Amino acid sequence: MKIEKIPLGPLGTNCYLVMKGQEAMIIDPGGDADKLNAYLKEADLKPIAILLTHAHFDHIGAVEELRDMYQIPVYVHKAESDWLSNPNLNGSALFRMEPISAAPADSFISSGEMSVGSFVFNILETPGHSPGGVAFVFSEEKWVVSGDSLFQRGIGRTDLPGGDFEVLVETIKSKLFSLPDDYTVYPGHGPETSIGDEKLHNQFVG
Q1: I need a labelling partner for 186 at 20 to 30 A (CA). Which of 54, 69, 122, 173 fits?
Q2: Which of 156, 177, 160 is nearest to 168 (CA)?
Q3: Whether the Cβ atoms of residue 51 and residue 116 lie closer than 8 Å to each other
Q4: Which residues pair with 6 in a beta bridge?
Q5: Looking at residue 170, which CATH number applies to its domain?
Q6: Among 124, 142, 132, which Cα is nearest to 108's?
């Protein structure tokens, strides 16, 4: 299995392609559908699903176009089931930008083991940045795609709808920091890090 980071959208959100053979799962397509589509075609990849760590506008900007283009399902946590279609909840209405919306998700994500096609991975519910935040854990590869909960030397903002600083810190300590130190963290923004490094150096999670 391989993973590729492609920054997309107005905030350069990290979209990830998790690939096995010629199949790929798309995680958090924040915008620039044409750019992502060009990459998929050049690499001869077949997308089979769109997975969302959460439904803020900068993570969902290309959802509708890609879903229509490839006829693939979209997965999000049930706590944010109505965020895709609601610019006030997904945050796009709060900024000076064209409101972003998409049709509702096709399926819901919950904690525990999840399989999509031949991909098998685990879900950690990681609220705090948003109520339905999740992380995707690939145990064999020692990866975690953390969304906007944990960054290199930082954490997600908690001043948007449904954010809660105390909940986020507890989420990181009890869920993400329960993973082994050698797990690579692939965050929603910025460079990769590791669980061990963040335990030692992340000043927000003392």
Answers
A1: 69
A2: 156
A3: yes
A4: 15
A5: 3.60.15.10
A6: 132
